[in-house]
Specification:
Blueprint (H helix, E strand, L loop, with lengths): L9 H11 L9 H6 L41 H12 L39 H14 L4 H32 L8 H30 L19 H8 L23 H11 L10
Helix pairs in contact: 3-4, 4-5
Pfam family, one: MRP-S25
Keywords: Mitochondrion, Ribonucleoprotein, Ribosomal protein
GO molecular function, one term: structural constituent of ribosome
Length: 286
């Protein structure tokens, strides 16, 4: 980087130019800047960090060839323990936990530090976080290697969980032997809810089909009332045509009864003719 581009070294560059004769007169600001030089730039490298939050195998400083300043990764011992614990016990992540924060911050447990020697001193039903804190306590306050502290914490965690599992199984067997009847389990309740949801799908489909059928009440085929008792090969139609009876192709609301002698009355024939010719397009012969 050129010196003239660094703001706090401009007066040094001006001194060199005056000494070589490139500048004939001193700038007006030259003496004032020499009397009160600018502050030096801060160091590019951050200060050395402790092993508290720094990776153990990564050097604390970057190589001198680094051209871009980047923050160093932050890593805690708890993160290593937690990652290894859930890698060895993946199903512990499926246990239900509440994430709701209380009104006050939970105070520190009185059993801690040098006095915390066994995991059961805090609880008989430890959680994964209890095992991780216990391993960290052994590592920091009892001067145990991290691998030994983790192995001891995991062994005690599994032992306490086994005790709780056996105690629950024995209590369940005793209750069933004494005649206790338990309700449906959570799995049974979930299956019942699923079946109920499936039933609503069938009811919804049937309701949609009924609504669709009711919406389409019209039909393309005209339904006529009555039909001939026997097939006359068109003789009945020809006889009525010769008698002047016109066939009706419109929907019949009040159809008169046709006898071998013809219609019952002239009024009924006129009414039937008017129903057939409701558009007034058919003219009777004079």
């Amino acid at each position: 980087m050129a010196t003239k581009r660094i703001a706090n070294q401009v007066h040094k560059q001006a001194s060199r130019l005056l000494r070589e004769g490139y500048i004939q007169r001193e700038p007006a600001w030259f003496r004032a800047v020499l009397d009160h030089p600018p502050l030096p730039l801060p160091a590019r490298e951050p200060p050395s960090r402790t092993h508290f939050d720094a990776p153990q195998e990564v050097p604390l400083t970057r190589p001198s060839t680094s051209t871009k300043i980047q923050p160093l990764p932050i890593q805690y011992v708890e993160d290593q323990l937690r990652k290894q614990f859930f890698r060895d016990h993946p199903f512990e992540a499926f246990r239900e936990q509440t994430l709701v924060e209380g009104a006050t911050v939970e105070s520190e447990h009185p059993v801690r530090g040098q006095s915390w020697k066994r995991l059961r001193q805090r609880t008989r039903n430890p959680s994964p976080e209890d095992a991780i804190r216990y391993a960290l306590n052994l590592y920091e306050h009892h001067n145990q290697p991290l691998s030994d502290a983790y192995a001891s914490a995991v062994a005690q965690f599994r032992s306490l969980r086994s005790e709780i599992t056996i105690a629950r199984q024995v209590a369940l067997a005793e209750a069933e032997h004494l005649g206790m009847e338990f309700g449906p389990s959570q799995i049974d309740i979930t299956l019942q809810k699923e079946n109920k949801a499936f039933d609503t799908f069938h009811e919804s489909a049937a309701h949609d089909h009924t609504a669709e059928t009711e919406r389409k009440r019209w039909k393309a085929v005209v339904e006529r009332e009555g039909r001939p008792d026997q097939w006359t090969k068109g003789q009945e139609y020809t006889r009525l045509w010769k008698q002047g009876v016109r066939p009706v192709y419109a929907p019949i609301f009040t159809e008169p009864e046709i006898t071998p002698a013809g219609l019952e009355s002239a009024d009924v024939a006129a009414q039937l003719s008017s129903q057939a010719d409701f558009l007034g397009m058919v003219h009777t012969r004079s």
